[in-house]
Design goal:
Layout lengths: L3 H4 L1 H12 L4 H14 L30 H39 L5 H4 L3 H31 L3 H8 L1 H29 L3 H14 L1 H51 L2 H46 L7 H7 L7
Length: about 325
């Protein structure tokens, strides 16, 4: 028996080289924008809280009462709404660009706007699906915490005993998320259907080709582990490469400012340099490291889908360009 998850390793690499080589800066930057959104964003949401106790105040530690008033409450709500809106916008762009990325790799035409217009509803469908899954996960976590607190920790013992069941639930949720991106999104493009119909099509294939998809899941875990190591090493190399010239230029400047202008200016310049350095590492690392890794992973999933379910083959043109054999019926 032929395992498509193993067969697809080599053609995915060939297709990745075909798309990315020779290196064209504009094309890599465009792909970097797409990859930045689809590979996951980490949001920093700092919050501060003031805890005013009932103890006797001391001259050094007394904190005056703060009455934020109606205007303050409105301002806080406005900031929260704006923050939520920005988070939803970024999440929607991430969902939309999942489809754009598939369009790019299957056509080898590296453009965003040309494909995005046709995928607006599909992107919204994927976003709503992700929100639904997220609500389920958050609900489970919050419910677990509440039950643990209300039962004085007794529920935690139950969780430890039920660890195998929880592991299965976590694995199922991972598979749902992974298969949605790797298979349902391409099916939605091929069939021009919504995400629920896409999952219906995939479930039909899973019933008949479950062994192929099981092997894919295992191989995909290994690929993900290797890809994570490559990305971390790549970002480390980028950081070191950029740190040397940044340090050579910035350290003398900060030292001069510290001895002439003052500590405040030196600290301000130092913080600005660190922020610019972090931004440079993020941009260069995303373009130089994440782009080839994510491109390979996406081609790999599409080749497996094409071989396992030829009805949803989106890589006919790509296969011709790399002289790969067609999927067997």
């Amino acid at each position: 028996m032929t395992w498509h998850a193993l067969e697809a390793l080599e053609p995915a690499a060939s297709a990745t080289r075909q798309l990315l080589v020779p290196i064209r800066i504009r094309s890599w930057v465009v792909l970097g924008i797409v990859v930045f959104f689809i590979s996951g964003l980490t949001g920093f949401n700092p919050s501060t809280s003031i805890n005013l106790g009932d103890g006797a105040p001391t001259p050094m530690l007394s904190v005056p009462a703060v009455d934020i008033g109606v205007i303050g409450v409105i301002a806080i709500l406005a900031i929260a709404v704006v923050g939520l809106g920005i988070a939803l916008l970024f999440a929607y762009l991430g969902a939309l660009l999942e489809f754009v990325f598939v369009d790019i790799v299957r056509t080898m035409d590296i453009r965003i706007r040309a494909f995005a217009g046709n995928r607006l509803r599909a992107g919204l469908s994927l976003l709503l699906f992700r929100i639904a899954i997220g609500v389920i996960v958050v609900g489970m976590v919050v419910g677990t915490i509440l039950l643990t607190v209300l039962t004085a920790g007794i529920f935690l013992i139950f969780l430890i005993l039920a660890f195998p069941v929880l592991f299965i639930i976590a694995a199922v949720l991972w598979l749902v998320g992974r298969f949605t991106i790797d298979f349902v999104v391409p099916i939605m493009i091929a069939e021009e259907v919504g995400i629920l119909r896409g999952w219906e099509r995939l479930l039909e294939e899973l019933r008949t080709e479950w062994k192929q998809f099981a092997v894919y899941a295992i191989v995909r875990i290994v690929i993900g582990f290797v890809a994570a190591i490559v990305v971390w090493m790549g970002f480390a190399i980028v950081a070191i490469a950029l740190a040397i010239p940044t340090g050579v230029v910035a350290i003398p400047v900060v030292f001069v400012l510290l001895t002439t202008v003052g500590e405040a200016a030196a600290i301000a310049i130092g913080v600005a340099v660190l922020l610019l350095f972090g931004l440079a590492v993020l941009v260069v690392g995303t373009v130089a490291v994440q782009v080839p890794v994510q491109t390979y992973v996406r081609y790999y999933a599409l080749f497996v889908l094409a071989s396992t379910c030829p009805t949803y083959d989106l890589l006919e043109d790509v296969r011709d360009s790399i002289s790969a054999p067609p999927p067997s019926e």
